[in-house]
């Protein structure tokens, strides 16, 4: 049996908050469209931090820092990842598109692209929109998005938790964009 000793936090060489702020970011922005769970929002912050995402937009009913419940899952990532609150998700999407972002609604929709078939382009910036835990991404946002991306599922349930979806999507897009 091979002995593998777990690393101590001090051995992981993680960036400080200041170094994170100064680091070159992955050209990936996350838009949370009316996400109601503070734990989901905090989890998205941690995942965004892990993959050097540019920014998170917290829209509609989505809670914002400072918040003790959000902090429980964000564990300080709300201090490293840039974020902005916006009342209207559609205005954020329109602004991102005008700034050259390719907007991907993460939603099950007619004509959606399966995640494993998604092709990203070098030099492009991407924004992913994740929706409400019950209603998903608003139809008006789906209509304005450049593409709908769907994570294939093979069991009896028709959806994944939004924080799980965020983890899968952010990992896939960020690791692809980091290779360019």
From TrEMBL:
Pfam families in the cross-refs: SpoU_methylase
One record GO biological process: RNA processing
GO molecular function, one term: RNA binding
Domain of life: Bacteria
Entry-linked InterPro entries: Alpha/beta_knot_MTases (IPR029028), rRNA_MeTrfase_TrmH (IPR004441), SpoU_MeTrfase (IPR001537), tRNA_m1G_MTases_N (IPR029026)
Gene Ontology CC annotation, any one: cytosol
Entry keyword set: Methyltransferase, Transferase
Residue intervals of the tRNA/rRNA methyltransferase SpoU type domain: 28-171
Identification of the protein by name: RNA methyltransferase
């Amino acid at each position: 049996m091979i002995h593998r000793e777990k690393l101590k936090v001090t051995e992981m060489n993680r960036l400080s908050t200041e170094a994170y702020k100064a680091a070159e970011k992955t050209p990936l922005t996350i838009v949370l469209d009316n996400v109601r769970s503070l734990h989901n929002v905090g989890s998205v912050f941690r995942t965004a931090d892990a993959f050097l995402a540019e920014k998170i937009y917290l829209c509609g009913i989505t809670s914002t820092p400072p918040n003790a419940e959000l902090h429980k899952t964000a564990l300080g990532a709300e201090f490293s990842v840039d974020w902005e609150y916006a009342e209207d998700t559609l205005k954020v999407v329109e602004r991102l598109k005008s700034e050259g972002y390719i907007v991907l609604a993460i939603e099950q929709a007619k004509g959606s692209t399966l995640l494993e078939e998604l092709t990203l382009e070098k030099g492009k910036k991407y924004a992913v929109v994740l929706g409400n835990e019950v209603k998903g991404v608003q139809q008006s946002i789906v209509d304005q998005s450049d593409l709908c991306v769907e994570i294939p599922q093979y069991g009896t349930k028709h959806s994944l938790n939004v924080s799980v979806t965020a983890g899968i999507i952010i990992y896939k897009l960020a690791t692809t964009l980091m290779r360019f």
